[in-house]
Design a protein that fits this description.
Blueprint (H helix, E strand, L loop, with lengths): L20 E2 L10 E3 H4 E3 L9 E3 L1 E4 L7 H9 L4 E4 L5 H16 L8 E6 L6 H6 L7 E5 L6 H16 L6 E4 L4 H13 L6 E5 L7 H9 L3 E5 L14 H10 L3 H10 L4 E4 L4 H8 L8 H7 L4
Parallel strand pairs: 5-6, 5-12, 6-7, 7-8, 8-9, 9-10, 10-11, 11-12
Antiparallel strand pairs: 1-3, 2-4
Helix pairs in contact: 2-3, 8-9
Amino acid sequence: MMYDPTPAKPRCIMALLALVVVAPVLKASRSGTFSAQPFLRSLTLTQQLPEGIPVVTFAITKQFAAPHDISAIIDAGGRGFSIMFHDSPEAQRNFGNALTKALSSGLRREDFWVGVFVTCGMDPMPILDRAGLEYADVLSNHGPCKQGEEATMAQWRELEDQVMAGKAKALGVSDYNGALKMQQLDRLLESARLRPVVHQTLLNLRAFDSAELAFFRERNILPWAWSPLGETANADVLSSPALSKIASDHGKSSAQIALRWVAQLGALLCTSTSNPEHVRADLAITKFELSEDEMKALAPVE
């Protein structure tokens, strides 16, 4: 059954389009993915997400100097990746080579979940070509266009066209932080044919905005946390006595507890490492849970 979560607002919806509906509270499962139930109550004909969305994804950055660096992530069980428009073209090609190797070894394209980010006026095809992708699982615009809201809306229509052409399965946004940008996003949603299903945003134990999380949750947009350990945001995430104690109680590292805390907020994680040991540790955060008291103890003061 088709369901519009915002019936009071007029929508320009194409004939066979139903909206993705995300449950209010998301929870990382022990399998390492978000299952289609309960957080997806319906799928669309043109914006389908896979049955299992990886909780832990890995950013493809310049540190991946060779395909075997990315193959190490895949061999360890990594299936989710994020490719940003400003990432190294060489790293994007290395990802493509590693993906080709994985597919030749028996894995399927649908086993992977890859997000591609473009900025205003940018054609995503060169990134897809370098990364060996026929399509992106999520194609995202990186923040509002500096040229204004009209340019942002034009960019969104181009991304919608990419979905219709089969070059993306769903759309997303990133860095729509702060009251002004969130208001701009609401205006975009009013005229969009396809709604974003994810929002990549800075989120960790030191960068936490409950009002922002509520805003996107109310609009059924899944948070996708970049810099969940503060490594690219110059945030001192791991130096907390409470974090150290909880890590000791669980027999885990402080980094694993910090990542698990973000995941239990109902967010996907975007980490960045080429160290196989760190990859395995990051993926292992789906194998345990924090109690409600532990979550509260770690919560930053807003």
